[in-house]
Amino acid sequence: MIREIVLWLIVGMYLLVQPGEAEARGGNTRASLKVTTQLVTQKHLEQALLAQLHRQFPLKNVELSVQVLYPKQPVTVPNGKLVIQVPPDTMDGRTGRRAFRVALLVDAHLVQTVNVVAELMAKSQVVAPVRWIKAKELLEADDLTMISHTLPALVHDFIQDMHQAVGKQATRLLRPNAPIQHAYLALPPVIHKGDRVIIEARRGGLLVQTVGIAKASGQAGKMIPVENQRSGREILGRVLAAGLVEVQF
Fold first, then answer.
1. How far is it, in rounded angstroms, from Cα 56 to Cα 54?
2. Of 10, 1, 8, 98, which is closest to residue 46 (Cα–Cα)?
3. CATH 3.40.50.300, applies to 196-247
4. What is the pTM for the complete model shown?
C-alpha cells in the first residue's frame, strides 16, 4: 500500500514538472533562432529613387513624388546592412512612367538587381500671363501671376521667379495662364532701328566720337550695324546703352 502511494506521488510530480520543462526547452529553441532575411519594400525603393533624383537634378522649388508600380511584392534579401543603388545613367530627367535598374547590396556585396517601374511626378510654381501678351510687348508685374504646373521634365526652361520676367519683352504671342519659358522673353532693345546714336571708339587714352544712325534695334551688349553720318560708311558696333554704340578701330 505504501509503495503504491509513493509511486503515485512520483508520477504526479513528473506530470507537473514536464510541461514547464517543455516550455523552457521550447523557449530556448525560439530564442536561439535568428532572422536571416529582410524585405525590400516599395517604400524603400521610392526613397532610394527620390534621393538619387535630388542628387542628380537641380530641383529648386519643385515638388517631386515617386510611386513604384513594379515590383508589387517585397523583395527578399539576406539580412545585413542594406544599400539600394540607382545608377545615374538610368535617369534622363523625364517625368511620367519610367523604368530603372536598381542594385541591392547587403554588407557591400551585390545580392540582386531589380527592374523597377515607377511613376515620377514633378510640380512647380511658374510664371504665367493673366492676359494675352503680344510679341514685342513689355511685361509688367500686373500682367503676371504664379500658377502650379506639372513639369514634363526635371530639367526645364520655365520661369519660376516673377522678377525674371518683369520688364522683359515677349518674343512671341503669350497665352493667358500658360507657363512662360525663358526662350519666350528677351531684354527690350535700348536702341531702335533709325535712332540717332553716338558712335565712339577708344584706344588707350584716346576717345573719338561721332554721330550715326542705328540700322537695327538691339539690347545692351548686342552687335548692330550703324551708319557713320560723316563718312556714310556702315560699321558694326556694340550697344553700350541707350543712344551709345562702341566700335573698334
1. 6
2. 98
3. no
4. 0.68
Cβ contact 124:61 at 8 Å: yes
Instruction: Supply φ then ψ for residue 42, to 5 degrees.
Output: -60, -35
For 167, the grid coordinates are 520688364
Domain boundaries, the chain: 38-122, 124-186, 196-247
Given a cut of 70, the residues of the chain with pLDDT beneath it are 1-34
Q: What is the CATH number of domain 124-186?
A: 3.90.1210.10
Which residues pair with residue 242 across a beta bridge?
none
- Determine whether 245 is exposed, middle or buried from the number of CB atoms within 10 Å of its CB (0-12, 13-18, 19+): buried
C-alpha 8, offset from chain centre? 82
> For the segment 122-169, what is each residue's pLDDT rounded down to a tens digit?
999 999 999 999 999 999 999 999 999 999 999 899 999 999 999 999
CA dist 246 and 235 (Å) reads: 10
Cell 546592412 locates to 81
Instruction: Give the number of other CB atoms < 10 A from CB of residue 237.
Output: 24
- 211-220 in b/e form (b: 16+ CB < 10 A) is ebbbbebbee
Amino acid at 79: N
Q: CA dihedral defined by 232, 233, 234, 235, rounded to 10 degrees?
A: -140
Q: What is the secondary structure of 124-164 as a DSSP string?
A: EEEEEESS-B-TTPBP-GGGEEEEEEE-SBSS--B---GGG
Instruction: For residue 166, give the C-alpha cell.
Output: 518683369
8 A C-beta contact, residue 66 and residue 118: yes
Angle at 54 between CA 53 and CA 58, to 5 degrees: 105
Largest CA-CA distance found in the chain, in angstroms, rounded: 148
